[in-house]
Structures are given as structure tokens and as C-alpha cells.
Design a protein that fits this description.
With 347 residues, this protein is of the alpha/beta class. Helices cover 50% and strands 11% of the residues. The protein is globular, with a radius of gyration of 19 Å.
Length: 347
């Protein structure tokens, strides 16, 4: 029986005449309905943990745009919170965490099997979305990759170059390795519960993979993603896995094969022809329109969208942005992109 969900067909290696489409951060501040729902929640974390409201914002871009996939509304830092870190968000600045700094902190961390009490609202969000979602629309679960999550835990916030995490490795790599292992195991359990709740596939976001030097990339980007992906596949053989080693450059080559993932998401800095030759040859690719086009629109949006479709037309491809859509994006530009992908836009 042919899988009706276009996203899953692409993830299983099928080359489609029109690629499925969704956007990273497609539920977000560029949508007026999202802003209204967030007001009801009170703040970002309250929205993440209110299953009814989180399900609503997950479904909003599906209703408005008709994307081929929904992605559960949550945040990659819910896992460290479930492991015992304090987490809060500063308006206009982003997340803050209590800093991971010592063996004593590691000893105090929550055991992996106990994280679900905190994360249960995410699983309920997935169940609620699953009930409402059109049968042809896929539902994506996700988590942050251990390296990226660790950089936030060590710095207590996002940083431009992840310098605190690099310093931590240099000063105490054994403890850093323990942290990565704990995060890997927690991520496996978290994604497993998302799948049990109804996710059709999962994505691992390694937003800061590109900052790892060569001697650590295999150890802290490839290996954790491999362990997570392969364990998920052992438990759930039919569930595809997407990995996103953002800004990895040449190290994108072979990443899907090394990790066992079904698809690798591409950032917008990469050459399309190079990706088609070096990366898509291994299977499905996702991406990689620059998010700026969702702000500026115009002819460049049409041209770049068509070029991506043309360059990746020879293999399995999921159309997406090269990173998340930004709050200043224009709704009309999102519509124009979708219409262009689906072939109904004439210029």
C-alpha cells in the first residue's frame, strides 16, 4: 500500500514530482493567530506546557497554509529542564538556564527514566494534534541534539560561538562526555514517547554542529546522533529520522550514512549543485531556501524556490527553509513560496 503522506514517501526515498513542504518554526510570531494564543498562555514556557494551546498553535500553520507536515510545538530546552535545570525566558533576549558546571551538578541531574513527568504535556499535545490532523498530513516530533543542548546548559544561554562549551571540553572533557551521554539517553526516551503519542517521524536539531572543530565533530555531533537514530530505529523500525547538522559544511557529506538517518536537512549556505551531487546521492535531503526570502519576497523568492526544486528534482526532497522562519516574515511571501513549489504561481 502506497503511503499517502507525501512527507513520509519522500523520507522513505521516493522521488516525487512535487516535493512535500513544511517550514522550521512554522508555528511562530509571524502569525497573528499565534500571537493571540501566546497572550492567552501568558509566556512562552506556559504555552509549551499547555497541551491544548500548544496543539492549537501546532495546527495554525496547517489550517492557514496547508503544509504537508506539522511539527509539535515545544522547545529543545525542555529536556534539560526535565533533567533538573532551571529554565526561564527573558523577553526580547531568549532562554536562560541554570549553568551546568560541575560533577555535583551532574549527580543532581534527574535520572533519564524520570523525565516524563515534566515532559508529559508535550506527549499530550501530540495526541491532541493527531486527533485533529488531516490523515494526509504528517506529524513531526523533535528534540535538540546533545551537543547543541549542552552548549546552552553550560553557558546558561545562547552564545554566538559556543565558547563556554568549548572551554568546558578543554578543561573537563570526561565530565562533558558524561553530560553528552545523559542527554543522548534522555533524547532517546523523549523521542520514543513522542512516537508512542503519535509522531510519524522525528527530527534532531543540531543547530551548533558547525562550531565543532574536526577533532570533536565525529565524537560530539556524529556519534550522539548515530546512537539516537539507531536506537529509535531499533525500537520503531518504520519511523524515519531527520538530522540537521547546521553549518557543518563539507562534513555534511556522509552524515546521513554515518548516523543511519533517513534525511539530512540542509542550511542555506550550501551550494545546491554540490548538495545534489554529494549529499542527495545518499538519500532524502530537506531544505534549503534562505529565511530572508520570507521577509523580502519578490522575484528572488520565486527564482530561488524554483532553483531548489530543479536542482533536487533527481532524488527525494522535502522543501523547507535553511533555518527557522523569522518573526518579521510576511504571510504573503509564505503563500507565494508554497504556490511556487506546487506549480500554481505564474510570474
Amino acid at each position: 500500500m502506497v503511503e499517502e503522506k507525501l512527507l513520509l514517501r519522500a523520507l522513505r526515498g521516493e522521488t516525487l514530482s512535487v516535493p512535500p513542504i513544511w517550514m522550521m518554526r512554522q508555528a511562530g510570531r509571524y502569525l497573528p493567530e499565534y500571537r493571540e494564543t501566546r497572550k492567552k498562555a501568558g509566556d512562552f514556557l506556559s504555552l509549551c506546557y499547555n497541551s491544548e494551546l500548544a496543539a492549537e498553535v501546532t495546527l495554525q500553520p496547517i489550517r492557514r497554509f496547508g503544509f504537508d507536515a506539522a511539527i509539535v510545538f515545544a522547545d529543545i530546552l525542555l529536556v534539560p529542564q526535565a533533567l533538573g535545570s532551571d529554565l526561564w525566558f527573558v523577553s526580547g533576549e531568549g532562554p536562560r538556564l541554570s549553568q551546568f558546571s560541575s560533577e555535583a551538578h551532574f549527580i543532581r541531574m534527574t535520572n533519564t527514566e524520570d523525565i516524563h513527568a515534566t515532559l508529559a504535556p508535550v506527549y499530550q499535545t501530540i495526541r491532541l494534534v493527531r486527533k485533529e490532523l488531516n490523515a494526509k498530513v504528517a506529524l513531526i516530533g523533535f528534540a535538540g541534539a546533545p551537543w547543541t543542548v549542552a552548549t546552552y546548559m553550560i553557558a546558561g544561554r545562547g552564545t554566538p560561538d559556543q565558547a563556554p562549551a568549548h572551554k568546558f571540553i578543554a578543561e573537563n572533557e570526561p565530565l562533558f562526555g558524561q553530560l553528552i551521554t545523559r542527554l543522548s539517553h534522555a533524547t532517546i526516551e523523549y523521542l520514543s514517547m513522542q512516537i508512542k503519542a503519535g509522531a510519524d517521524c522525528v527530527k534532531i536539531f543540531d543547530s551548533w554542529a558547525g562550531s565543532l572543530p574536526a577533532e570533536y565533530f565525529e565524537k560530539y555531533a556524529v556519534e550522539p546522533c548515530r546512537e539516537i537514530s539507531q536506537t529509535i530505529k531499533q525500537r520503531f523500525p518504520q519511523i524515519p529520522v531527520i538530522v540537521f547538522p547546521r553549518s557543518a559544511g563539507n562534513r555534511y557529506i556522509g552524515f546521513a550514512k554515518k548516523t543511519g538517518a533517513d534525511c539530512v536537512a540542509l542550511d542555506e549556505t550550501l551550494s545546491l549543485a554540490w548538495c545534489a551531487e554529494k549529499i542527495q546521492v545518499d538519500g532524502c535531503v530537506q531544505g534549503n531556501l534562505a529565511p530572508k526570502h520570507m521577509v523580502t519576497g519578490g522575484q528572488a523568492l520565486f527564482d530561488e524556490t524554483r532553483d531548489i526544486i530543479d536542482q533536487f528534482s533527481g532524488g527525494p526532497h522535502i522543501f523547507n527553509l535553511g533555518h527557522g522562519i523569522t518573526p518579521d516574515a510576511k504571510i504573503d511571501n509564505v503563500h507565494a513560496m508554497i504556490e511556487t513549489v506546487r506549480g500554481s504561481k505564474s510570474v
